[in-house]
Amino acid sequence: MDQSISEDELIAVCGKVGKILLTSGAETARVEGTVEYIGRAAHYDITCHATITALFVGVNNQTKTHLVKVRLGDFNLEKVDEINTMSRKFVTGKIDFDELKKTINQIDKKVIDFTWPEKIFGAALVSVAPMLLFKATWADLGLAFFVGIFGYLAAALSSPRIKTPYVSPGLGGFVVGFLAAFLQSMGIATNAGNIIVSALMPLVPGVAITNSFREIIDRNTISGVVRAVDALIIAGSIGAGVVIGASLSGIISHLIGGAL
């Protein structure tokens, strides 16, 4: 056993590694494996048990256990990749424990995100792709491009300001449903349904749904079910927003038509 690394210090670092991975969207099997690999590389028999809301780290045959409370966060696969890269370097002996600890703290404080133009353009491209399957008109394809941008911006900009969970995706769905239905009622769009389905793609929790199935297949039933329920609630809020937005658009179009 490497006595230069204290047990308490190693457990604290492993706990932080696990927390970053969980809050960044990694599945629980990956979290447990990464933490235990780091422990073995430091010559400690570290054991880890991860759920979607808590992380337990300790040393086998020892009474001390480190508990880390975790809350579901946004997916940040870049942080997951950076943690995995550093853990592999530590396991293979390319960096020492002090370097690992320093880098983990930097990753924890680091804000890893794309620029707004990149995110907006990415949302627009994702919104257009399903229209190719629908064999939609070029006009509808172009409208889906812009409706998807507005829906994504509504969800992204409202998320930091609205503390109530699941409201922001619903607001994005509301904007998409309202714009698509209004454009069709004005005779600008041909098929509002196709535009709605396409423009909702940036809001759909696809990674969460995929990870939930992976968790369940790995028999991490609790974490998988929690992820699945969370994803279903997000999908439900998006659907509710679309229905409300499209209904409101219909009412406004009817009033405008009656006034004319």
UniProtKB/TrEMBL annotation:
<protein>
    <recommendedName>
        <fullName>Threonine/serine exporter-like N-terminal domain-containing protein</fullName>
    </recommendedName>
</protein>
<feature type="transmembrane region" description="Helical">
    <location>
        <begin position="231"/>
        <end position="256"/>
    </location>
</feature>
<dbReference type="GO" id="GO:0005886">
    <property type="term" value="C:plasma membrane"/>
</dbReference>
<keyword id="KW-1133">Transmembrane helix</keyword>
<feature type="transmembrane region" description="Helical">
    <location>
        <begin position="192"/>
        <end position="210"/>
    </location>
</feature>
<keyword id="KW-0812">Transmembrane</keyword>
<keyword id="KW-1003">Cell membrane</keyword>
<comment type="similarity">
    <text>Belongs to the ThrE exporter (TC 2.A.79) family.</text>
</comment>
<dbReference type="GO" id="GO:0022857">
    <property type="term" value="F:transmembrane transporter activity"/>
</dbReference>
<dbReference type="InterPro" id="IPR050539">
    <property type="entry name" value="ThrE_Dicarb/AminoAcid_Exp"/>
</dbReference>
<dbReference type="Pfam" id="PF06738">
    <property type="entry name" value="ThrE"/>
</dbReference>
<feature type="transmembrane region" description="Helical">
    <location>
        <begin position="142"/>
        <end position="159"/>
    </location>
</feature>
<feature type="domain" description="Threonine/serine exporter-like N-terminal">
    <location>
        <begin position="13"/>
        <end position="248"/>
    </location>
</feature>
<feature type="transmembrane region" description="Helical">
    <location>
        <begin position="166"/>
        <end position="186"/>
    </location>
</feature>
<dbReference type="InterPro" id="IPR010619">
    <property type="entry name" value="ThrE-like_N"/>
</dbReference>
<keyword id="KW-0472">Membrane</keyword>
<dbReference type="GO" id="GO:0015744">
    <property type="term" value="P:succinate transport"/>
</dbReference>
